[in-house]
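Database export, one record per block. Field names are fixed; values are copied verbatim from the stored entry.
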Amino acid sequence: MENSSEKNVAIIQHGCSKNLVDTELMIGFLANAGYSVTLDPDEAKTVVVSTCSFIHDAEKESVRSILEMVEAGKRVVVAGCLPQKHKEELKAAIPEIAAFLGTCDFDKIVDAIEAQDYYFNVSEEPNYRYPENVERKHITVGSSAYLKIADGCNFSCGYCIIPTLRGKYNSRSMEDILAEAKRLAEMGVSEIILIAQDTTSWGLDIYSKPSLAKLLCELNKIEELDWIRVLYTYPTYFNDELLEAFKSLDKVVKYIDMPLQHSDPEILKMMKRPPIDCEELVLRIRAAVSDVTLRTTLIVGYPGENDEHFANLYNFVKKMRFDRLGVFEFSRERGTYAYSLKNQVSASVKKRRKKQILALQEKISKEVNESFI
């Protein structure tokens, strides 16, 4: 590639914070190969669309970007969850796509960019391993930054496609995480935000037991850091050791992001979630960690959810008074256990139930906020 303009590559980023980190790792590989990366597609002939495929709406956004770039005459490389999930459909529907990279294949981004012909590298059985041989190039650098501590998932929740897209749970080593945290601190980052598909399982594959508390203790020793925030916790592994870490470590923010998905035992069983008393867990967390801020995410309209199940969920939200709460309507995704379940809930009912929960939470949030005045 003799023309220097050919060394410009544009990135379009979709999806969650975990995918953002993968995109930044791709930029790291490109930078090491001498490429300049821009977020403006007008500045490059080649555009990498880093995609999301968690739910339908996310897929549509990714496909829209791909089509826009194809219509603009760009050489389009599609990476991430969408080709991992829909590789054959994408190849047939948009033959103009020049290259595909799966969720665990983004380390081949330079090969995809430089390929003279069609390029396809999507692992049949993804097994995500964080590439420690490259440094992330941050799209934005501010006072806070994400730090991915693991990827993949060993749970088999009925609504979720993540294990199929990302593979089994893989923890990064303590040493590698601490090294990246120190690099971020040297860049001026004062708050690191720990992310994974499930942060509370960290260390299970290394130490044979969940060891997030151990990791938090070591991160807490980094002098240049002011705050450590933890997202995407899984309720099953909220043990006393972890609660003690949230309680006693001065840099660990007393903010717990714990997607419960539902509270009714029958629905949780149908979701193939581990059996857990959600109310008991919330009360235990609040008793152990004073002034904790609790955020959760719920799914309404899961197949088989009747009026009684929803009433139980509504009353649970009313009683628990979460500080922050998000609601998703169940999205029927091919490849998941729930896709073929009977008793699918109608779109209108899902929409109504979501609206009811959000209205309740808006009232709760207003009352909570007013209590601080």
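Remark 1: The two ends are 62 Å apart (CA to CA).
Remark 2: The chain has two domains: 4-121, 144-370.
End of record.
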